[in-house]
Amino acid sequence: MAQFFQLHPEHPQPRLIKQAAEILRSGGLLAVPTDAAYSLVGVTGHAPLLERIRAIRGVDEKHHFTLMCRDLSEIAKYARVDNAQFRLLKATTPGSYTFILEGTRELPRRLLHPKRKTIGLRVPDHPVVLALLAALDEPLLSSTLILPGDELPLADADEIR
Question: Domains (ranges, CATH) in the chain?
Fold first, then answer.
């Protein structure tokens, strides 16, 4: 069953964030605004989530996924980060950049790129996503919301409904 939440883009309502977090915890999938475009997000503990995202997007098992993290310390938990990478991350996050880094053993293998053992990581700079990350206390698995046959990601909530 699809639900539509209208959240304030700068000051998301805590009650609605809590409801959205519960949907994610129960294995649900959300389309959320980010600082770049809309993304499909879910929590990493639900294995069928990857297949649902792949089916919606029309992509294969080689598709790269991104983990949205709250901060640099959370990125360091899931990826190997050397000093030069850390300086670059610190200078450019939060923001719309995604960094492809080698994953650690903390990541479930199904989330890593099958051959390279890497994953995309980012610290978003959008109040709605940051509120969800705080409510969940774990990273969000994400993929930009580009529908099959489209070249550009969806950027308008009314297009998603």
Answer: 14-142+155-160 (3.90.870.10)
